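Please go through the sequence and fold tokens given here and tell me how the chain folds. Record follows.
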Amino acid sequence: MAGADLTLDADGIASLRLIRTRAVGPITYFQLLRRFGSAQAALEALPDLARRGGGPPPSVPRMGEIEREMAAVAAKGGHYLLFGRDHYPALLAETETAPPALIVIGNDTLPARPTVAMVGARNASAAAIRFARQLAHDLAERGIVIVSGLARGIDTAAHMGSLAGGTIGVIASGLDIFYPPENEALQREIGTRGLIVSEQPPGTEPHARHFPSRNRVIAGLAQGTVVVEAAPKSGSLITARLAADYGRDVMAVPGSPLDPRAQGCNQLIRDGATLVQSAADIAEALQPFGRNHVAAPASVYATAPQPDDANEADRRAITALLSPSPVAVDELIRQSGIAPASVQMVLLELELAGRLERHAGGRVSLA
């Protein structure tokens, strides 16, 4: 708990109110801070930005709501890690969609150690579960922390194998929710001996939309990701793709071509992932990355607030190019011929007005 934010200062509370605003996701959050210089200034600008986007002002949580959340976090023995502050995980801070606020229980210094994510099938074979547990144990003995998602199957095996040496469980719910229910004892033990990480406020149930967000945190926390059994189009492969996008190592354990649960891993290896048969293979793959890799979080604050750089003609032109089908922001810039800063400003206004949705890969569409 060395970096614990048990009581947030005024700027921390403003940051929490901003990220808890329904229309504000991580990308929008950082754009607002770069543009207005502080979370409080961004909060004050939200109504005007939404008006220019053609919608009502977004609903900002009242102070009482934030105070109740903070009290619930403290009651569960948790604390906040805010982006740009001490003990926020350096590797995660490098990613474009880093969560502005994490809620954690346990040892928040673990992410500073060498880390490997281990993910795989929920309905994994007995052989794969045994292999994952032993692999996690061997890595932990080498001083490597295992990151996983506390799901059934491979995730559970990875946590159990690394519990004594260091493990991080990233969950898709609030800290006070245990999912799957049979892992309640394991989640509590990780909170005592390792680290539990969530970006959701207490009381949040693990809805389907939260799991891709959880996967990006798993991939972002780790120097590399190992997949042990995964069907095509599984969540584990999403985590592996995110790791590749972040410039991290992707590794996979090969399996029988006759087992559908091995198809995802075999495909990853065919596409260039490192084939893994032992902890030594993983340690060797991570060596070029550097065992002591530490990057200070980049400042998200502008040196001075940036002026409004979009006019009404820009708004009409960009809105006309949008449709319900997702399109890359770079494509909007190319087709419109409008300065990137102006395009981003219009998209920000539309999003705060509830008229824009953001998708993976830097794509956007009309809501």
In short: Residues 124 and 153 are 5 Å apart (CA to CA). Residues 291-305 have pLDDT under 50 and may be disordered. The chain has three domains: 10-105, 110-289, 312-366. The first helix runs from residue 10 to 19.
